Amino acid sequence: MYKIKSFIGNIRRVLRWLPIIWRDRDWDYYYIYEMLKQKLIATEEYIRKDGIHIYNVTDADSIKKAIDMIEKVQKEYYLDKYLSEAENWYNDEGMRKAIEDQDKARKELFEYLDANIEKWWD
Asked: What is the rounded distance in angstroms from the CA atom of residue 97 to the CA atom of residue 54?
């Protein structure tokens, strides 16, 4: 019975990943973030719903924070914000600040992952 349940679970995982892999491209960091984000989404859902340790909700919330951070970096939130608000796109100071904020967000993401990722297991 265990082998059948395991096989069915493996098929479900393949089907869950198939659209993500289908859209994957090898030439842009966006897709690296997408793969990591999708893995964390699945882990967050599992730990929140089926986690058996006492801190499962806290850990799921922590993973959700990482997902939100990935989305900001992946979608270049600070650069887009600057470009949508800028009256003059050629303002070197404003663009420099947006790039600094984007770099800071990326560094904070990886520091957060480094500090927490080994805690996210059930």
From this structure: 42
